[in-house]
Each structure stands twice: as structure tokens, then as C-alpha cells.
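Onboarding guide, step 5: your first structure request.
Type a short instruction followed by the sequence, for example:

Predict the 3D structure of this protein.
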Amino acid sequence: MARIISCSARVTQPLAEGWECLRTSADAAACPSDLGDDGTWYPASVPGTFAAALREAGQWNGEPPLELDDDDVWYRTRFFGTGRETLCFAGLATISDIWMNGAHVLHTDNMFRPYAIEIDARGENELYICFRSLRAWLRRQRGRARWRTRLAVPSSLRFARTTLLGRMPGWCPAVHPVGPWQPVWRERWNGPFRLRGVDARATFADGDGKLALCCELGGDVPEDLQGCIEIGGHTGRLEQVAPDRLAGALSLPGIAHWWPHTHGEPALHQARLRIGDIVCDLGPVGFRSIAVDRGADGNGFGLRVNGEAVFCRGACWTTPDLVTLAADTASCRALLEDMRNAGLNTVRIAGTMVYGSDDFYALCDELGLLVWQDVMLASFDYPATPEFRSSLTAELDAFVARTQLNVSLAVFCGGSEVLQQAAMFGLARDRIDDSLYSSVIPDTIGARRGDVVYVANSPSGGDLPFQPNKGVTHYYGVGAYLRPLHDARESDVRFASECLALANVPCRRTFEAMRVAGITEPGWKRGVPRDPGAAWDFDDVRDDYLATLFGIDPLRVRYADFERYLELSRAVSCVLMEQVVSEWRRLGSGCRGGLVWQWQDVALGAGWGIIDSVHRRKPAWHALQRACRPRQLIVTDEGLNGLALHVLNERETALHAVLRIECLQDGATVVRQAQCPVDLAPRSGLCLDAASLLPEFFDITYAYRFGPPAHDVTIATLSDSVSGELIADAFHFPDVAAVQPREIGLEVAVDRDSHGWYLRLLSHRLARYLHIDDASFMPQEDWLHLPPGRPRRIALQPAKDDAHAIPRGEVRALNMMRAVPYAGHAPRPD
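The system replies with C-alpha cells like these:
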């Protein structure tokens, strides 16, 4: 059934209270009566997991590993009912049996799909759920894989419809998800008939929207029953096309359409369904078109939304809480708002994770974030048995039904790295059974969501599935493969659905909370990702780029000045993030998207995330924020051709600005400068040569090397032609490694106005990677370059909802001798 927010004839009651849980050895009890009095029952939250229950009961300190797949876990509760109703389970992890009042009523084997049973709940009722040992169940499965992946253990997980979270050594802590991780509730319908299903399809073409509905009814359906759809004052009739079915459509000429937030307003319209006396709230509905752009050579991959090309920049989602797998609205909103505020417009849920909650997709609709959704299939050679296909199809049917009206869902993908693994293990093409990805999945999705783009696998599209210059790739040239920065251009990446997996060092506050003395301690290494079987981890990758970019020995810096090592390591992530994304966004690039792996860490430390596991922004967040501005200025080094200045305007309104460049010597003295007006139509771009702005030759990239460099930085700015407000800036350093600490004359002041606290900064020399450390506030901008003589105002956002918090911290820069402290003052009482 399509998403129904509320319905006047439907009564739902969460079954969330009074739960208890118990752990036993595998198959110790075949049914509840076999349990006896042995063992300790702990209070349990539902939705929740057994790991969360143990943590809440003080039986586990929260430190991995917590391996639960060898045992059975029992849940029980009691409730009082008054008659016939439906008992609904949104998600049970993973193999379970359910008893109602001593009778076995349901067996489940898929944690990703909902289950429902009709029950007679008169009087007091006793409900038991036994989550069977997954490992014992896997031992009974038969069938040989054509390849074995090291991604997750055991390899027999390919038979189970369960998440790989908590089962991927090196990628995330070992915390096995077991239990009713999604809500359980009771449901009944008032009146003679009920709504069994709603097929709702929103389409958009030629500026007009259309919502078509087909409603399936059950029970005593009256003859000549009528209904209607209502959206924004418009009404469309539903006719009774069969005794148990109503259908109709509502056309909406010229309706405001939905855009990703970088390109326009994500317009949504409230929809309501009426059938006789029943009123159903369908929630917000959006209208947009989406199509694939393969490029001039037919080998590319890009999205066109409402006919406009969109550069998809974003990140891959994990989960706000690895222990509970919970995705409550508050956590989702905070993380997704951070994504939007960084200028990202796409979020991918990869096949190693879990499907998002209803709130997740609703928030993406609201915030204007495109969703790339994988099927929960990753790396394994999945069985092609009828039973597996049937379970997968039921899972997909349920997902499509509940997300049918989510306009943000843009790409549906058959899974992660399955075809890549087959190819990398040398399997001949004629031995790869891709029927799941070429027919079963697309046929199931396409039956109800013909408005989304389908991708067979991530990656896929080339002669080898992982070729960067064809289709969709996972690009780790800059990153794990230690390729130089210019490889991002030379590899001709067309769309990177994964990229830039870096061990991003968290901010100072998070590092101090870890209470570790160095990066070799177990407390640090637990948070550093590694590929199973590799003799290196992603700390090593970051250190390699630290050495290459800044021309130093990371080991020696760690020995001599560990704090300096951490600062340089944070800057490494900033350089790689900003330069690679900028390279792909420049005019002339064939790349149409890059999604960072991952958005938030699953463990405390230097994980892949842009947000750490306690939901603080890492320095890399600020680098992405600069690289992803909808109105953007990008500077690229074209060698002997000088600097190219790329001006981008993705907005729906024209851009009228002034472009300026300045070349500084010794971080302070202007040796060359020029400016010109720039006028850009909506959703357009312009590329200029810096040489065309300067009156005479100047070795701006230090490519000709006639003597020592005449400057150490080129600063390009784009400012509003009327207000003078800075829109974007970009910096080019002939020598990136020149960050030796010195006196730069930084002045810092704290102020407050009606909008809140902010810092006023002024530097007498260029400050490189200036950053702000404050225990109570987050800066709106951070890890930035501050030009000399130009005051900068940076807003401070309270880290917590504390109206009495006062800024107190210090400002540092990579090329500063010492930090500059600051402190605000409490406002005087009126």
C-alpha cells in the first residue's frame, strides 16, 4: 500500500510497551513452553535490538564486538485486545518464529520486508518472538558460490536477507543486529469496508503534473461508492471500476515542480484521498521528471531533472546508530540538514546497509535531496533459487509501495559491487547470471515506479563493470590506490557512485573525547577502516598523501609534534575533497556526479565519514561545502596554458557578478590583479583564461619557471555586482607545501546581534586552512583560506540548544605560529 500518513477509518496502536528479552543457546527451546524458568529476561525497547537492550540493562558496555548470531534471542509481551485486528511487524532481524497465545502464527526470513497477520485479540494476549541463530540457519543452507568475497563473514550470508552492517570486518564494528528493529503495531478498521491497497503514481510532463490512484477495497463495499483526490484546491474524481476497486486521476496544469535544492525549490503539495466517509492523508506529493543523459559518446551517466542537467554531489548513508539501527526523525533531520547545508544534493543508500525509514525519504523530499537507492545486495554471489527470488520480490514490492509518492527517489540500483566482484574474480561473462539485476529487480520496480532511473549495479556500464570512463564507477584512484590528484581528470570519470574514501580525522573536540595518545593505540585503530586482507589501512593512505602534498615525513612529524600531525592530516582531507570535486564540476569535465563514501562514521575515530559518530562535522565537511556551492568559482591549473576560471550558476535566476583575481607575494603584497564583469543566465556556466584578464604575460601557474616564483598564491573571488557580497572564492598555490608557521597578524573579535554570535576576523597575511575550536559553538565556515586585509564575519551556531552558551575558544591556521584565543561576554540584563 502506498504511503498513508493517517486515515479516519484506521486505528493503529503501537505495541511498544512491556517487552522483555532473553538469550539462549541455539535451538535450546523449540517453542515458548520449552523455555522454563532458567535465564534472565531484560527489559527491551521496541523498536530496538537485543544489543541495545543489553546496553540499557548494563550487561554490555557498548564496546564491540558483540556477536549474537550464534544464539537464539527471545522477546515477549502481553497486551489486551477487544476483537479482530491485524498485527503488523515492520522489520524483524532476521530468522524468526512468532507465537500468539501458545499457537505458532508466523515464520519470517527477511529483515527488510514487513509482515502482517490477522488475529483474534479478545481479552489478554501473550506474544512471543524467537529470533533464531542466524549462524545455525546458515549452516543448513546448501549451494556453492562461484566467487567468495572478503567483504563480510561468513560467506554463507549470501543466503540470508539481512544487513551486512556489523558483519563487515574492517568496515564497521562487529555488533550483530538481532531483534524487532522496526516498529510493531496493532491495526483495525472501523466501518463496513477497509482500504487494502493504494497504487499512487505522480508524473510530470510538459509543465503539468498528474496524480493517478487505484484503490483496492475489502469487506462489505457498497455499490456506487465514490471518491476523490484533493491537491491544493484541485479535485479529481475516483470511479468504481470494479466491485472492490476505485480509480481515477487528477491533472494539475502548471503546478510548481520539485527540484533538488541546488537548482530550485523542492515544491511539495498536500494530497488527500476521500472514499465515502473515509478521509486519508497521503502527505506531501511532488512532481518532477527525471532522465538519464549518456553524453555525446553514449558512455556517460548523468541525471536530467525537469530537463536540466544536474551535477550530483553527495555521500553514501550509513545509519545514525549502529547498535539500534534506529533512524529517528531528529537524527535523520540533523544529518540530512548538514548534507543540504554543505551544498550536497544526493544521498545514496548502498547495498551493504538497510533501507531508509519513512521519515528518511520524507525528509529528502522536503530538503530537496535526490536519493540513489540500492537493493540490499552487495558483493556476494546470491542464489538464483525460486525461494530467494520470491523473498527478494516481496521485499521490493513492500519498499516500492511505501515510497511510491516520495519524489526524491531518483535512482534505483540493483546492488553494490556484485558484478564488480564477479569480474574481478575472473568469472567469464557467460558464467555471470545477472538475471536478478537485468529482469527480476527492474521488472518489480518498473511496475510501480516507472519515473525513476534504474542502474543494474554500482558500479556497472563498462566492458569491465568498474571502468571509470564508462557508466557508473567506484572511483578510488585518488584515495586507496594512491594515484596523484591529476588522475581524477585522466581517468575520465563519468559518474562516481562511490569515491574519496578517506580516513578523515575528526575535529579537536571529538579527538579529545577519544582519550588516546596516538594513532597506533587500539582505541584509535578501532575507528580506522581497512579492507579485509590488506596489509594497510586508510591511515596509511592519508599519510601517503600527507607526504606527497606537504613534502614531509608523517612519521617524523608524529614523533616531534603530534598535534601538528593531526592538523596536517585534517588539511589532507580538505585538499583531496575540494580539488577532486572541483575537477569534476569544472566546465569541460565529462563527470556528472561524485558521491563520497561515507556521510557519517559508524564508530568513533578517523572513519570514512564527513560527520563523525557523535554527529559533529569533520574538517572535510567544510571543504565539501566550498566545493559544492550552487553558484561557484573554480580555478584549475592547466599547466602551460595558465589558470582556467570556471564560473557556474546552477540557480534558477541570472547571476550578475564581478570576477577578480589577485596574485600575492609573501602572502600579503599584490603583484598582479585584474577584474571583469560576469553575467550568466540561469543554469549556465562560463570559462575564462586568467591570461585574458591580465594585461601582460605572468607565469601564474609557475609552469615556465623563469627564476624563483614571483607569487605564492592566486586568489579569485566572485562578488555580487550590486551588493559586493562574496559569492564564492578559490585559491591556487604554486607550492601547496608552503605552510611553514609564521606570524600572520591575525585579529579576532567576538560580537553578537539579533541573529546570534559571530566572529570578526582580519589577517595581515594570508591564513591557510584557518579553523575555529570552540567547545560550545560550531562555525558556519571553517578550514578556509583567509585573504589578507579583508574582514571576514563567521556566524557561530550553538552546538547544543543552550541559550546561555557563550563563545570561548581559539583560532588557528596551518601557517600560524600560535593560536589566537577569544571569549565572548554575557549580555547585560535589561
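Each response can be followed by summary notes, for example: The longest strand covers residues 193-205.
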